[in-house]
Each structure stands twice: as C-alpha cells, then as structure tokens.
Design goal:
The complex is a heterodimer of chains A (about 375) and B (about 600). Chain A is mainly alpha-helical and about 375 residues long. Chain A is built from 15 helices and three strands. Chain A is globular and about 55 Å long. Chain B has about 600 residues and is an alpha+beta fold. Chain B has helices spanning about 1-10, 25-65, 65-80, 115-125, 130-140, 155-160, 185, 200-205, 205-210, 220-235, 275, 295-300, 335-340, 345-355, 360-365, 390-400, 410-420, 445-460, 530-550, 580-590, and strands spanning about 90, 95-105, 145-150, 165-175, 190, 195-200, 215, 240-250, 255-260, 310-315, 320, 325, 335, 425, 440, 475-485, 490-505, 510-515. Classes of the chains: A mainly alpha (about 375), B alpha+beta (about 600).
Chain lengths: ~375, ~600
C-alpha cells in the first residue's frame, strides 16, 4: 500500500489525501468485474461470427490499462484544467462526429464509427462527458453574470449535439444527453414551470422519435405487446436470470451467450445473472448506485456550483446508462441499445467513461476553501 | 460558437477572491444558487436511488420469485404443451386425425451473415432443399422466412449443430392421418398452418382448434375398411373409373362408413388428382336409376294410389313426346306392383307415377329429403338437381330415377327411412349420444315400411339382386343401373351401377349402398356391367363381413326356400286382380 504523509505536498501527495479513494476502489472493482464478464460472454459471440474466440477479450483488454490510467491522470487535474480539457475535447468530438457522418461507414444501420489508423473510434462517446462539463460551466457562469447568455449557449450546444446524434441515428444516446442537460438545468435552478415544460418537450420528443424512427417504434410496440413476438432477446435474458438463481450456474456454464447476439454488450447482465447469479448482479447494481450517490454526496458539500453541476451531469450520464441497460435487460422498459458502463464490450465507450469518471474524481476532491481558479 | 467557447475558456474564471465591488452581491447569488442546487441534488439522488432499488428488486423478482412464471413455465409449457388441434376419432375411439409436435426451420435473413455459405451448409444436411432457393430466401429483405416445415428431431439436431446465426426453430404441429386413404375425403385435410381446408377438418375447424377432447365421428373404421376394400376390388375387377359406397345405421342416420374411389393419401398429397379428392358419396349428384323405384313404389303404396294387387300394363313401351320408355328386362305383359319392382320395370313405374300424380310424387320425394342437400357435416355437399317445372314426362322418368340427380347419400338416407318403419333421420357423421333422442320425421306409415321390406327382400330372392344375398343375413335391396349423360344425351355404354340394401330385412339395422362408376363386363359377370352383376355381389360381400362385426345375429334357421312364393311362378293375368303374392311370404317369415 502506498504510504503518503499528511504533510506531503507533492501533486501525488495532495491528490492522495483529497481524492475520493472509495470511488476509485469501486471503479476498479467495476472494471475488474467487467473484465471477467467479457471473458465469460464474448467468446461465444466471437465464435458465432467466425472470429477467434478471444477476439473481443483481447480487444477489450487492450483498452483497460489505458482506461485505468486515464481515470487516475484526469483525477489529478484541477477543476480549471478539467474545464479546458472538456472544451477542447468537446470541440474535437463535434468535429469528428461531423467527419463520421461524411466518411464513416455504416454498421448495423447507423453511422457512428470513424476509422483512424486501423482503430474504430466512436466520437459521440467522447462528446458525452465533455459536453456535460461544458454545459455545467455555461450554466454556472450564468449564475455569476446575470447578463451572460449561458442558458442559451447551453441549449444551442445541446441542439447541435442532439442533431448530430439523430443524424447517425443514435436515439439512445440522444436520450442520455437530453437527460444530462435536463439534470444540469434542474440543478442550476430552473424554475419549476420550465422544469415541467422540459418534461413535456421531452415526452413530445419521445413520441416524435416513435414516429420518426421505424426501429424505435418497433421496439416500443414489442415492449407494449410482447406476444407480438421478437421479444426473443429479452425473453431469453429473463430466462437466464431465472436459471442462474442466487449463485449462478457457474462460469462458462451459461446458455444465453450462445443465442443472444448482443451477449457481450447490451445483454451482458443476462450472462452475469446466469453464470454468476443474483448476488453478483446485486453487487454490480450496488457498485453503480454507490458511485453515483457517493459522487452526489461529495458534491453536496462543495461550494463550487460549476463542480456541482459538472459532477451531477457526469454521474447522471454514467448512472442513466447503467439504469437503461439493466432495465432493458430486465424488461422494465423497451429495449434500448445502451452499453453498461465499464462492463460491456466497447473501447471508445470504456475510454470515454474513464475520462468522465476521472473528471468526477477531479471535481469531487476536497478543496477546503481552495477554489476553482487554484 | 466554438470560438466563443474557446474565448471564454481562455478568460480566467471569476472566483470570489478576484471579485470586485459586486463580490457581496455575487456571493449572495451564488449561495442561493448553491442552496437550490443542493436541494435539487437531493431530489436527483433520491430518484437514482429509487431507480437502482427498482432494478435490484426486479432482479430478485426475476431470478428467484416470479422468474419461475417467466422462465420455467415457458420451458415447461413448450415441452409438455399438448398439441393444439383436437384429434378426430371414429365411434370406437380409433384415431383418424391427430397432431404431432414438430419443429419448423425459419430464418431471420437480416441476421444471417453469409447467405451463400449458410445455404450451402443447410442444404448439406437437408438435401431435399434447393441451395439457390434457400440462398435467395436468406438474401431477401424479409424479417422472417420459412426454410423448411416440420423437421424430424434428427434433422433438427443436424441443423442445430451447424450453428448458423439467424436460423431458428419454431415449435409447431403437423397433422397426421394414421388411416391414410381409408377415409380421405371424409376426414379431410389441413393446410400447412393447420387450418382445415376439406372434410370434417374444415367443417369443424373452429371446434377442433378450441377443444381438447377428440371429436368422435359416427364412422366405424372396421366397416370403412371392409367397404373400401370391396369397392376397390369391384372397381379393379370391372375396370371402372370410380366407386362409392355408404353404410348407414338405418335407425339413427349415422354414417358408419363412406368411401369414394379413387382416393388419396392425406399424409402425402403430392400427385393427388382433383378426381381423387372429389367425394362421390356426398358431393357428386347422379341420376340414380332404378333404386329410385323404391321411393316411387313406397310413395304409391303409402298414398293409397296402389296396393300390392294393383297391376299396370307393361306390354308396350311408352311413347311420350319424342321419348320412348322401355324395360331392360321386358316381360311384355301386365305387371303387379311387386313384379314392377322385382323386374325393375320402367314402364310399370312410370304408369304408377302417373296414377299417383305429380304433386303426390313431388311431396313424397321432398319428405324423403330428395329435394334439399342432405345436411351432412361436410363442406363438400351436393345439392340435388331436379326439374324447375315438373311436367308429366318428368314425373314418369323420375319414377325410375332419371331426370333428377341426387347424391348417393340421399339414397342411403331415404332407403333407411323406407326400411326403418318410415322415419327419415338426417344423415350425420357425428356419433349420436346414446341417451339423446334421434331426430327424425315420419315419411311413410309403418305398414308401408313393412311392405317395402318384403318387396326389397323379394328383389334379392327372386329378382335382380340375387347376388347380394348372404346366408343368415336376410338382405333386401334394389339394383339401379343408370346410363350416364354425355354430350347430346345418354351414353349407353357408360353406366352407373348401384345396389342399395338393408339387413337384416325383418328389422333392418344397416343400409348398405354401393355404386360403381362405368364398370365393364367381365367373364365372371357374363359380360354384364349392370348392377345385379357388379354392385349387388359387392354389397353381398360387404354385408357378410360387417354383419358379424356389428353384432348382427344371423338368422338361426332361414325359412325353407320352397315355403316362399316365387313371383316368377305366380300366374299373371292381364287386368285380373291377384291376391297379394306377399301374404305367403309374410306367413313364412312369421314362422
């Protein structure tokens, strides 16, 4: 164990005593569980598409050390640098998303990936956390300078991002980004009337998506009427949870991964439920809840509105993805292609989440009167 | 916009220490904003807590509690579910149609990664499929496409072992007819989706889909087998184009057997001709010929127009308009009513009908059910053809079964009414419950029925139906040889030879009808293709086999032949009323 004196004033020393070590621990456990589940779920999928058994495992493991490094390095940054990093990152991500629409290749009906040097990158994943921080800055600035049009800039950026996402199309991520904007506006003191207005607009957006995107309509129809068939993935997933029971059938003993096309991404919790049982699943839910709520609790004591908004935005994105993923798998809501943070397969997603959680750690460090412009 | 953000990012953030005169004001604003933020942070946190709690609860629910209903019941219902469609059984519970669970192979083409490769491998294990066709299906833009219905478990295993993504199995059921050809037209058929398209399967489609207990028919598959066998033999022996037959319970109208040849195997429809699917017994309408004389005679007797002693001039053919009515077995003299039936005299029958009158004839035929469909529980039911304006010439020809077409089933039901005491029971294919009263309407008086039985017995003992007699089973009946109509009139060489019988004739239990379509004479039949030589012997063989099966006790000691009055020996005098030749017969039977 690293031992650092309270009096150690080096960057690392100050970091050690101010950062939330419990959240770091929870994140590392989550990454470890994700690594195990990828090993459990993906070989069957890889084999089915004719790839080498450990194709997905290898590709995911390549990203894990950088992801851990990103979490730790970003958590060292002071809030000002978090903000600068986000502004630059967001600008780059938006540019890359535009490029994706122009030169990206279509996979499974959506244009989301950009191929750079043999690696597929999903720029929209990096837009999410940086966007949350940029919005937080705009809104907190608006509170300090009443004549500053932060709200409008935030809405404009949101419209830009949402527009680019819907062009891909990626309804699920649009939903998450919308929720993040809403949470931040809400925390920034949006009048309750406007809160209601936002909710109405949001619902109208959902209804609009139902009519605008055939696949969204199909999924919602299927959710409302499972007998109409094709609830196959979800039905199989529910069966998997049941057959796993409390302790699971044991690693490698599961069946769902053999039949579910998305066993290593959207339905990875079903594999966890079948092979490792209810206890592990509850543990994973507990880890997510812990990370989100602990982050909220830490910002509760913060005197910095920007930090509060940014943290809440980042954690909402993180928590919402987890909630949507698990709720889909458990048939609590219509199937929505959404990765489970740090658990599902996906390099861009993992790195982007590492960036986001690193920023959460950076923003929730204890600063005892030390203010944002250190 | 991006530039303005960059500019803002470069601008140092205005912290409270850097704040100037407005510091206190800004501090207040910030505090209030922070307060609001904190309160609302609690709300957001609570919502997240709630969401995670719901997810955890649902996990426990699915994995341990209600999951039993979702997951377990699903597999169990798939494994043990009784197949959907109800069975069809005969009156003794023998399976006629049942459903077996099967798996059908289907694909979701959008999930298939390499259609060509997948098609090649699927055809590798299911060689009856065409690779190009399968590949085309897998390349189609449809969400669902069947590749092959009803796989055997071995085939299913082989396809499964290929591990091709995008291929799935659908649990289904396949209709199977264990009796094959035996009752093909009658039981009918289901299509690929297990919807009835013919026969009982169609008429009871809804009931079969929604009930679990088998549908019990009046059919007796043993009797059906005998009937099928004998008709097939007769058809082959006389190189006929078809044959049909019916065995009916005379007291209830229940059909025990009904055969139409040629037929088909409902389990493998490939190559089944339209003719083989045609049900001659209940759908085909024919001019039945002389068997109709039974109805004519019964009506004349019952209406009081004639008695057994009445006689008619059959010495000369009748010329009406441009028609000539002749006899096939011309006696060229006056004939009594029994003689008209025994010798099957067209001339005598026509004269009898004229005496009776068109109205009486029509009203009796209507009561015998000859003017309406039989109402049998089949979609394939023929409606009788009869003249819209019923002229005198029609009355005369209908008396001997021409100029009017009915189904063989009409004749079986009508003859049942003639012999069972005079009550017409609607023909049915469903087994009647023992307790429930049999519906029926009186057509003729019981005495008329008794007389008719005696006359029918005489046809067999002394007339055209001799070859239908079976020792021990007193058979009574009537032959019918009709010429089939062709272009421009009757075709003299194309006959419909039929025989309708009842046994035991004293108190008939069953009516048996056999009809052979276009028989050709053989050495055994002395070159004859008429009913007495073709259909009558078949009915005799059928009765001899089904009598014991149906627990009909053979008569212990048939009356001595010499005690019977032979009509042929009875001296006949023109115009002289003769004492009933049947009196002695009745006495003999009473002994």
């Amino acid at each position: 164990m690293m031992t650092l004196g309270r009096t150690d004033t080096s960057v690392v020393g100050r970091w050690w005593w101010t950062v939330d070590r419990w959240t770091i621990a929870a994140l590392f456990v989550l990454v470890a569980v994700g690594a195990i589940l990828i090993m459990a779920a993906s070989p069957a999928v890889a084999e089915r598409i004719g790839a080498d058994r450990f194709h997905f495992v290898r590709r995911q493991f390549v990203f894990l050390p950088p992801a851990l490094a990103v979490i730790l390095l970003v958590s060292l940054l002071p809030p000002l640098w978090v903000r600068r990093l986000s502004c630059v990152g967001f600008a780059l991500a938006i540019l890359a998303m535009v490029a994706t629409l122009l030169v990206g290749e279509e996979i499974k009906g959506a244009t989301r990936w950009l191929s750079i040097g043999g690696m597929s990158i999903q720029p929209s994943e990096f837009a999410k956390p940086t966007f949350a921080v940029v919005i937080a800055w705009m809104l907190s600035e608006r509170q300090l300078k009443l004549d500053f049009p932060g709200n409008w800039i935030a809405l404009g950026l949101f419209a830009l991002l949402a527009g680019l996402l819907l062009l891909q199309p990626d309804v699920g991520m649009t939903l998450v980004v919308s929720a993040v904007v809403f949470v931040e506006f809400f925390l920034a003191g949006l009048p309750l009337f406007s809160v209601l207005l936002f909710i109405v607009v949001g619902l109208a957006g959902l209804v609009g998506a139902y009519f605008a995107f055939a696949h969204v309509a199909a999924r919602i129809d299927r959710f409302l009427d499972p007998s109409a068939g094709e609830g196959f993935q979800v039905a199989t997933a529910l069966q998997a949870f049941h057959s796993g029971g409390l302790f699971g059938r044991g690693p490698g003993e599961g069946q769902v991964k053999e039949v579910l096309p998305d066993a290593h991404t959207d339905f990875i919790m079903a594999v966890a439920g079948e092979e490792f049982g209810l206890l592990l699943c509850l543990g994973v839910v507990g880890l997510f809840a812990f990370i989100v709520l602990r982050g909220f609790a830490r910002s509760f004591g913060s005197g910095n509105l920007f930090a509060v908004l940014a943290t809440a935005g980042l954690l909402s994105q993180f928590g919402l993805q987890a909630v949507i993923n698990m709720a889909s798998t458990l048939r609590l809501m219509p199937t929505k292609g959404m990765t489970l943070p740090f658990i599902s397969y996906g390099g861009s997603s993992t790195l982007a989440l590492a960036l986001g959680m690193g920023m959460v750690l950076a923003l929730t460090r204890k600063r005892y009167g030390e203010e944002v412009a250190a | 916009m991006i530039r303005s953000i960059a500019a803002l990012a470069a601008e140092p953030f205005a912290g409270p220490r850097a704040a100037g005169d407005g510091a206190i004001h800004i501090d207040g604003v910030r505090k209030r904003a922070l307060e609001t933020g904190r309160t609302r942070l609690l709300v957001a946190g609570a919502l997240f807590l709630l969401a995670f709690a719901v997810i955890a609860g649902r996990m426990i629910d699915v994995a341990l509690l209600r999951g039993a209903a979702i997951g377990h019941a699903r597999t169990q219902s798939e494994a043990d579910a009784p197949v959907g469609r109800a069975d069809v059984v005969d009156r003794n519970g023998v399976l006629l149609a049942t459903s077996l669970p099967t798996e059908s192979l289907y694909a979701r083409p959008r999930e298939v990664l390499d259609p060509a490769e997948a098609a090649r491998r699927v055809v590798g294990v299911l060689p009856d499929l065409d690779a190009a066709d399968i590949e085309a299906k897998l390349r189609s833009d449809r969400a669902f496409v069947y590749l092959r219905r009803n796989l055997t478990p071995r085939q299913e295993y082989a396809v499964n072992a290929l591990g091709i993504p995008g291929l799935y199995f659908e649990k289904g059921e396949k209709r199977v007819y264990p009796q094959g050809n035996l009752a093909a037209q009658l039981v009918g058929l289901d299509d690929l989706d297990n919807r009835g398209v013919a026969g009982i399967e169609k008429s009871f489609d809804h009931a079969l889909q929604n009930r679990h207990e088998p549908l019990r028919l009046s059919l007796d598959i043993r009797v059906q087998t005998v009937l099928h066998d004998e008709l097939a033999k007769a058809m082959a022996a006389f190189t006929a184009v078809g044959a049909t037959g019916i065995v009916m319970d005379a007291r209830t109208g229940e059909v025990l057997a009904m055969v139409s040849l040629p037929d088909f195997d409902p389990n493998s429809m490939a190559g089944a001709s339209p003719d083989s699917m045609f049900d001659r017994a209940s759908l085909g309408v024919y001019e039945m010929g002389s068997t109709f004389k039974l109805f004519n005679t019964a009506a004349a007797l019952d209406s009081g127009t004639v008695n057994l002693a009445s006689s008619f001039d059959a010495s000369q053919p009748i010329h009406v308009a441009r028609y000539e009515i002749t006899d096939y077995h011309p006696q060229n003299r006056w004939l009594t009513v029994p003689e008209i039936l025994v010798y099957s005299s067209n001339i005598g029958s026509a004269r009898m009908a004229l005496d009776m009158g068109t109205a009486t004839q029509k009203s009796y035929l209507e009561r015998f059910g000859m003017l309406a469909p039989t109402g049998i529980e089949l979609p394939e039911t023929g409606a009788p053809l009869y003249p819209t304006t019923w002229r005198e010439i029609n009355t005369m020809t209908i008396a001997f079964g021409h100029g009017m077409a009915v189904t063989p089933l009409h004749v079986a039901a009508g003859v049942s009414a003639i012999v069972n005491g005079g009550v017409l029971h609607p023909a049915t294919l469903l087994a009647r419950a023992d307790a429930e009263p049999v519906p029926g309407e009186r057509v003729i008086k019981p005495e008329t029925s008794r007389t008719m039985r005696e006359l029918m017995r005489m046809v067999v003992t002394d007339g055209t139906g001799e070859k239908a007699d079976v020792p021990g089973y007193e058979v009574g009946g009537k032959t019918g040889t009709a010429e089939k109509t062709g272009v421009g009139g009757y075709r003299h060489k194309s006959l419909l030879s039929s025989f309708v019988a009842a046994f035991p004739i004293e108190d008939p239990r069953y009516v048996v009808l056999a009809m052979i379509d276009e028989p050709h004479g053989t050495k055994e039949s002395a070159g004859y293709a008429t009913a007495g030589w073709t259909a009558a012997p078949a009915v005799g063989r059928i009765v001899a086999q089904i009598g014991p099966m149906l627990d009909v006790a053979p008569a212990a000691a048939p009356g001595p032949a010499d005690a019977r009055l032979r009509v042929a020996q009875a001296p006949e005098r023109q115009g002289v009323p003769h004492p009933s030749p049947l009196r002695k017969v009745s006495l003999a039977e009473a002994e």
